[in-house]
Design a protein that fits this description.
The protein contains 12 helices and no strands. It has helices at 2-19, 26-36, 43-52, 54-64, 66-69, 92-123, 126-147, 162-177, 183-193, 198-224, 230-257, 264-286. Helix 1 runs parallel beside helix 11 (230-257), helix 7 (126-147) packs parallel to helix 9 (183-193) and helix 9 (183-193) runs antiparallel to helix 10 (198-224). It is an enzyme of class 3 (hydrolase).
Length: 287
């Protein structure tokens, strides 16, 4: 029985690693997966598990982009705080990046933390997830058609202004309120709308995930407590480890993919998935 639960955790880790970074909603996929592959755990543990498993995905971002997010060291230091001494090891361009990340996280951090339980009670259902999948799928298609052949004003993360960061953060808040929107999907749509290129939008979205998902995971662990059974601990660690490995592969794939392709394929996928979610649960209610 325990081996079967570990295999299920592996499957959840694979789904998390794929869907967390592609703009297709990890929540929508987790809801469907849980309908067919249920972990033999308590409801409280599963609610914690489906959030904390994201820590594995976050570590993948840290590993892949370490050289772009670690603000200390002399190697490739293009903007040192001082010419010599300890401050010469500070990379001011990366410090500015983290200021932008913090600014973009403010809306979700303030409103999301204050009303998290309310949002979950009101919107954590298959109807909301399906509608969000479809609406943002349509948004991807419309925006990509509108921008076809145009050169984006902002070609790199460094060119994203503080005002733009706040606007992207508001879109991230939409994802915090409405499950199924997809955090990466919402922030990418927001970035594209204000003139950020696909590559810069995706990269900045990965950075935003670090404090947001780490904070959400920490909150869930504290709410659940640390009273894990041995089986629960193995399930959680297995899911996180698999999500980490899969996330590294998916992040590298997406960054290469969008250099030559747009996001419309993900838009169509979201629409189809949203319709399937509605049909599945409608049929389940009937039979």
């Amino acid at each position: 029985m325990e081996l079967m639960e570990i295999l299920k955790a592996v499957l959840f880790g694979i789904v998390e690693g794929i869907t967390e970074w592609l703009p297709i909603s990890s929540t929508g996929h987790m809801i469907l997966l849980n309908e067919f592959v249920k972990l033999d755990v308590s409801e409280a543990f599963f609610r914690m598990f489906e959030v904390v498993i994201q820590l594995g995905a976050i570590l993948a971002v840290v590993v892949v982009f370490w050289h772009k997010i670690w603000p200390f060291g002399r190697k490739n230091n293009q903007a040192p705080l001082a010419g010599r001494g300890p401050l010469s090891f500070v990379k001011m361009d990366i410090i500015h990046l983290w200021i932008k990340i913090i600014i973009a996280c403010i809306p979700a951090a303030v409103i999301g933390l204050a009303f998290n339980d309310t949002f979950e009670a009101m919107f954590y259902n298959y109807e909301t997830v399906a509608i969000a999948l479809i609406v943002f799928g349509i948004a991807f298609i419309i925006i990509e058609n509108k921008h076809k052949g145009r050169r984006s004003r902002v070609q790199s993360v460094a060119q994203i202004s503080y005002q733009m960061c706040l606007m992207i953060g508001i879109f991230q808040l939409i994802a915090a309120i409405f499950p199924g929107t997809s955090r990466s999907g919402a922030t990418i749509v927001g970035a594209l709308l204000i003139g950020v290129s696909r590559v810069a939008a995706a990269e900045f979205t990965f950075y935003l995930a670090i404090p947001v998902m780490f904070g959400a995971s920490l909150l869930k662990i504290l709410q659940f407590g640390f009273d894990f059974t041995a089986t629960e601990a193995v399930i959680l660690l297995t899911g996180m480890a698999v999500a980490f490995v899969v996330s590294i592969i998916v992040i590298k794939f997406l960054m290469n993919y969008i250099k030559k392709h747009d996001f419309k394929v993900f838009g169509w996928y979201r629409i189809v998935l949203g319709i399937l979610v509605l049909v599945f649960f409608a049929a389940k209610a009937m039979f």
